Amino acid sequence: MRILGIESSCDETAAAVVASGDAVLSSVVASQIAMHARYGGVVPELASREHLRAIVPVVREALLRSTTRLEDLSAIAVTVGPGLVGALLVGLTYAKSLSFATGVPLIGVNHIEGHIHAVILESRRDGAPVQFPALALVASGGHTHLFEVRDGGGYRLLGKTRDDAAGEAFDKVGKLLGFGYPGGPVIDRLAPHGNPHAVHFTFAKMKGNALDFSFSGHKTAVLRWVEARHMEDEIAARKTLLRHHPNPSVEQWLTVTPPATLDLLASFQHAVIHELLTRAASAAQSIGARGLIVSGGVACNSALRAAARAGNLPCPVHFPSAGLSTDNAAMIAAAAFPKLERGEFSSLDIGAQANLPLA
Description:
Blueprint: E1 2-7, E2 12-19, E3 23-31, H1 33-37, H2 44-65, E4 75-81, H3 85-102, E5 106-110, H4 111-125, E6 134-139, E7 144-149, E8 155-160, H5 166-176, H6 184-190, H7 216-229, H8 232-244, H9 250-255, H10 259-287, E9 291-295, H11 302-308, E10 317-318, H12 330-342
Parallel strand pairs: 1-4, 4-5, 6-9, 9-10
Antiparallel strand pairs: 1-2, 2-3, 6-7, 7-8
């Protein structure tokens, strides 16, 4: 069985063909990062227009690379939410059109469920499948959630961010300090050059659900640190570097980033990772998890991976490969296979839902 996956929830237009639930025959992603970097973040209207330009060639390329014809497909899977509604509509409308024209069944997929299944797919393919019940930590620019994942596909929400998502906090701090957008990868590259214990960040103590996250306090602490040190010239120097070199090397960043700022970056990253893993460990213990899934764009962070694998978590931890950490369509196709096996198809009147919950 082959499923064509289509993803357009934010700023990547993606298509992929997955066979038998765990064989990625093709995965094509058209990224818009370079365009949105000029504005310091994703501009929804521009994202929708770029999806319109990219959706047809991206799907064609995914089919071509996998030597798959439309009539070979068992289903067409597409992200229906959550995400930017205009962006979602581009992928969803195209998927509906293909389904209507070919008679291939349509399967609507939750974007967050896709991130979880990216890990399930690769762990099964690599011979070390996730054991259930599992805990899923989904951390990206738009989401930071903890879910109990049951065998067979049931989900229970255990905790979520009350303000910024983890990836959003990384990107906002990066932008504040003049590192451009997206800021998370730059912070990850520079943090090893600083002292992660040099700047104190307060661990958020949550009233109500102790498994909820909060990252706005960390972001505000960075803002106050910057304001107290009058860093206008330093930040301006980094912006100038970006104008002349859109993708600076670590060595170039170090020429305009003094040790104190490197300490700040390392300490901020350490605080966010501590927040993520402390609550993930508590949640895993509370449900007797036999495996921990860490997925989403923040799962690319090298320090997060190192900390999670240091042996302080109560169960084995599973990360996706870098290519399946950020938004992609292979994860959407993978999440659709259990639905295909259960005969859970979507009608052609299914709509995009910007705030679609998983559980």
